[in-house]
Amino acid sequence: MRPAESADHPALFMIVRRGEILVEARPEGFAVPTAMVDIPHGTHHILGSTAEGTWVYGVDVAERTDEPDDHLWVPLRQLYGKIDETLWVVAGRAEQIISWDRTHQYCGRCGAATVAQTTERSRKCPSCALLAYPRLSPAVITLVTRGEGQDEEALLAWGRQFPGRFYSTLAGFVEPGENLEQCVAREIMEEVGVTVSDITYFGSQPWPFPNSLMLGFTARYVGGELVLQEEEIVEAGWFRADALPPCPRGGMSIAGALIESWLRRMGQ
Known about the structure:
By secondary structure, the protein is an alpha+beta fold. It has helices at 76-79, 85-103, 180-192, 254-265, and strands at 11-17, 20-26, 29-31, 44-49, 55-60, 71-75, 115-116, 123-124, 131-132, 137-146, 153-159, 170-173, 195-207, 212-223, 233-240. The chain has four helices and 15 strands. Residues 1-7 have low confidence and may be disordered.
């Protein structure tokens, strides 16, 4: 008997349909199911338990599974702010683990069917013994500043991934063989053509779009003119705290946390 099936162990179920989470539609808002609904489903993945002792499961269902009565499929990104933030993070964990499990049913080296391991979260090839673990892609995200006092400015860029005019901090994935500080310096040089120093760790955030660990940094401008990597960046510029363009402000992203921290330091 799994803990969730015992009356002594309350449970929550993160039921995942290809990037969408099944939620109960209640008059007061959305809720995560506390019982497994009557729909066809595959593997259950134990995600852990809350501080109150509630077990949390990720449940894999087929892409075309219909929602039962009084339930809705909601894309993970759109679910932010509609359920508790901690549960939203757990939902992201569920989606990432289920996506990994789906895409590693066969060995990437010899093609044999893999087997889920019971002692750790991995899948093993019985033919060549290759182990596959959930993928995690580290990425850096950096707020660059220049100037002093009230004349200090932040470097923000409008990336092509944003459909409307929306600026943010600079980010990119870590490449094999480089440390985080080297990645910060390289990404900023590649994307906007400037050099930086005083690269300082700020904080981190799991980010399930698609499977990242975002590592936040601050840095100081050293030199260079803005030269944009046009396939990545639409516009970039230096902005005072009292004249920011549309950009993240707090909320769900570490980019917003970086900007809010700078604004507080600037007295905004």
